[in-house]
From TrEMBL:
GO terms for biological process: mRNA transcription; response to light stimulus. Residues 1-58, 167-200 are annotated as: Disordered. The lineage of its organism: Eukaryota, Viridiplantae, Streptophyta, Embryophyta, Tracheophyta. It comes from the Eukaryota. It is found in: Nucleus. Residues 16-53 have a biased composition (Low complexity). This is ALOG domain-containing protein. GO terms for cellular component: nucleus.
Length: 200
């Protein structure tokens, strides 16, 4: 893992906090009224982001956000020491920014895809968002020099956690997450070769 490019290591006790829902970093958390937020991964110089695809831009933002999370971790973590357990901690941390209502088993709307009234159930990150995030971070890890066998985003614990989130959200929200089979358009019948001419 020596070739793995680490995130920056500068860190202070009242370092920046991450607002994952808006991809912003508040650099002065002691005074939130001070307008000191900057977009994660932004730079004052011209960036190549204008030529990158939407996926590549999102992957870069996710990578920068995870790096910021590691720097803000107590104690701070280096990427080379990051494990699947730290990735799970990161995913649970992101739940506070979730926008998906996940009903508890005691809720009268448990299993209802379209509840008729509001309820006090918690908001969480949607399974699909977490699954896509892990896919992007897994790719970014290897693009930054990480070895596939040492990729914490591909750890068995992370895969099991995502499966558990999918299953529990599916039951709680009454939504099936089964892969939908694409309907193939009907193929026109193939023309049969003309029968041999009997008059010959």
């Amino acid at each position: 893992m020596d070739s793995l490019h680490e995130f920056g290591t500068s860190n202070t006790d009242d370092g920046p906090s991450i607002n994952f829902s808006t991809n912003t970093i508040i650099t002065n958390p002691t005074n939130p009224t001070t307008p000191t937020s900057n977009t994660v991964g932004s730079s004052s110089s011209s960036s190549p982001s204008s030529t990158l695809s939407r996926y590549e831009n999102q992957k870069r933002r996710d990578w920068n956000t995870f790096g910021q999370y590691l720097r803000n971790h107590r104690p701070p973590l280096s990427l080379s020491r990051c494990s699947g357990a730290h990735v799970l901690e990161f995913l649970r941390y992101l739940d506070q920014f979730g926008k998906t209502k996940v009903h508890t088993q005691l809720c009268p709307f448990f299993g209802h895809p379209n509840p008729p009234a509001p309820c006090p159930c918690p908001l969480r990150q949607a399974w699909g968002s977490l699954d896509a995030l892990i896919g992007r971070l897994r790719a970014a890890f290897e693009e930054h020099g990480g070895k596939p066998e040492a990729n914490p985003f591909g750890a068995r614990a992370v895969r099991l956690y995502l499966r558990e989130v999918r299953d529990s959200q599916s039951k709680a929200r009454g939504i099936s997450y089964e892969k939908k089979k694409r309907k193939r358009p009907p193929q026109p019948p193939t023309a049969l070769p003309p029968p041999p001419n009997a008059s010959q």
